[in-house]
């Protein structure tokens, strides 16, 4: 008998051999399965938290009100995104983004929003452009953001509130987000890019109520130009509603200020109602970390019997960055609808990017 105590008794050797063999099999199976370690980039979580307090009175409201909101200059959201390199210049991508209201802790911009109501798509990046499939922010809205100094604000941007906010008698039918959308975005060619978006209605009994967007963007140094055309078909009532929208605008970033200008028209073919919106804006850097924002928009709506209604909305704001990811701001907005008394809104807010 050996006195080597490192050699186990015979009755213990077989169980240990089985354990080692089992571990080897499971290790090989685990290596054959795809895992997050195989991805060329990890999944990222990101977002923005915004809060504001405003005393608001519109031209159409008899009295003002004071309220706190989750958003302000930007609607609060969080998201997840990932990318896997497929080789040869191709990659698989996904994005899941959700609106939320930090003032109440609730999901979505309102009670009708789903979990990932900002963006939820899967797609590919290729040497020939980007393909995305799923719920997506419209390129029309992206261009409106580009063409005004208050960006995506559905509270303070005159161009955006006159387009989408019901309290301002919005001119655009449909949301800033479309469901069931296929998008193709071309690569840049001498500063020119194109985007096509096509969305199909999934509502039972309303097949054919599809949405279509055609867009061109050009960038050359300080100059940016944006063109959008979209058709929206929805079954808000019977018969269905069809609207065409056309947007054209430009920005120019001079050394002392950035200038904005846009023209937007809408036409509801089913009711012969339309609108014309004209917008001008200005962003003036006052220091390395702050700027003054100015914007004005006028919308003339045509109603039945050629009755015109004119709305003027203007905003003046001051935005100060405490850091690269946190800023505070103050905004005053003026609103005047023809034949109605004017209204004023005063607001302060804060944003933090993560």
Describe this structure in words.
The chain has 354 residues and is mainly beta. 11% of the residues lie in helices and 55% in strands. It contains 3 helices and 18 strands. The protein has a 16-stranded antiparallel barrel with strand order 1-3-4-6-7-8-9-10-11-12-13-14-15-16-17-18. It is globular, with a radius of gyration of 27 Å.
Secondary structure topology:
Layout: H1 10-32, E1 41-56, E2 65-69, E3 77-87, E4 90-101, E5 106-107, E6 119-126, E7 129-137, H2 139-146, H3 158-164, E8 177-185, E9 192-199, E10 211-220, E11 223-234, E12 241-253, E13 258-268, E14 273-287, E15 290-303, E16 307-321, E17 326-337, E18 343-353
Antiparallel strand pairs: 1-2, 1-3, 1-18, 3-4, 4-5, 4-6, 6-7, 7-8, 8-9, 9-10, 10-11, 11-12, 12-13, 13-14, 14-15, 15-16, 16-17, 17-18
Strand content: over 45%
Number of helices: 3
Largest sheet: 16 strands, antiparallel, barrel
How many β-strands, per DSSP?
A: 18
Average pLDDT, all residues? 87
Rg calc: 27 Å
Cα distance spanning the termini: 68 Å
Q: Which regions have little confidence, pLDDT < 50, spanning 5+ residues?
A: 1-39, 204-208
Strand order of the largest sheet: 1-3-4-6-7-8-9-10-11-12-13-14-15-16-17-18
What structural category characterises the helix and strand content?
A: mainly beta
The 3D shape can be described as: globular
Helix content: 10-25%
Helix/strand order, N-terminal first = HEEEEEEEHHEEEEEEEEEEE
